[in-house]
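thought: fold this chain, then report.
action: predict
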Amino acid sequence: MQKNDSTHIGPMETLSIHSFSVEELAEGIGRVLIPGVSDHYFSYGFCSDLMSDLLTIDTPETVLITGLITAQTIRTAHIAEIHCVIFVRNKQIPSNILHIAKELNISIIHSPNTMFHVCGILFSKGLQSIY
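observation:
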């Protein structure tokens, strides 16, 4: 179920912000491996393989799109209060990483597509960039 909010961006302009569930994000890009918390919705996307960049953002309702499949990715997402990670490029996700994500209540989506392709699909659905 998409949620819509309006954000005032100028004297007469508003920007409609769509919020997506984990399942809605996964449609057309991959499959949900760990559903996480059902009441989390996501309006923004951040794409990076550099976890130091992730620590610079402070935008709620953000999903991380990355090809870096390590335990540190999940731990950094947790510190940054990211509740959904999309792993791209059809890489194998080790069970220990899925276990950590489940413990930290972080949803995981696995996609066979490239990072560019996933970002394009999510942007066309209405997911916003944080910058």
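thought: worth noting. The CA atoms of residues 9 and 73 lie 33 Å apart.
final: tokens above.
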